[in-house]
Design a protein that fits this description.
Blueprint: H1 15-25, H2 30-36, H3 44-52, H4 60-70, H5 74-77, H6 85-98, H7 113-133, H8 139-147
């Protein structure tokens, strides 16, 4: 029996919602994630539910485990503090999943190290969006690119 792929939906920009999105994209159940994290007890799934609903936030070491299991960069699912440009970049990518009907574009007129990093990202992102719109890459490949995007020099 072949499983049907359902595109995950992002309910908001919270860390928990992003973890849930990636877990669903990877087609992993909450129980499977709990098992891979080696959670014990009758309520092991509740821990994952609490993470995804924002009731609890995973500690740094647990978040690293989750990112490794889900095969994504930790910056994709960490809490954003907006003290670094990376937070802006990752938030923009998630915002597109939350509101796919909007075309996100940031014209940058003043350049410094941070804006150069964001400008470089925007150019790469636009190239990927064009490839996706022209069906040169699949939605899954596009999301894979976003989940593992590496910011060089700004993380």
């Amino acid at each position: 029996m072949q499983l049907m792929y359902l595109k995950p939906r992002l309910k908001d920009l919270s860390q928990g919602s992003r973890i849930s999105f990636v877990r669903q994209f990877r087609q992993i159940t909450q129980d499977e994630l709990a098992d891979k994290l080696k959670l014990k007890g009758k309520r092991k799934r509740r821990t994952i539910t609490n993470y995804e609903n924002g009731i609890r936030s995973p500690k740094d070491d647990r978040l690293l485990e989750i990112s490794n299991i889900l095969n994504v960069r930790i910056n994709t699912i960490k809490e954003y503090d907006f003290k670094e440009s990376a937070s802006i970049v990752y938030t923009l990518m998630w915002l597109e999943e939350l509101h796919p009907e909007y075309q996100i574009d940031l014209p940058i007129t003043y350049y410094n190290d941070n804006t150069l990093l964001i400008s470089k990202f925007m150019n790469e992102w636009n190239e990927m969006r064009v490839k996706r719109s022209k069906r040169k890459i699949t939605y899954e490949r596009y999301i894979e690119w976003k989940l593992n995007y590496e910011i060089k020099g700004g993380e």
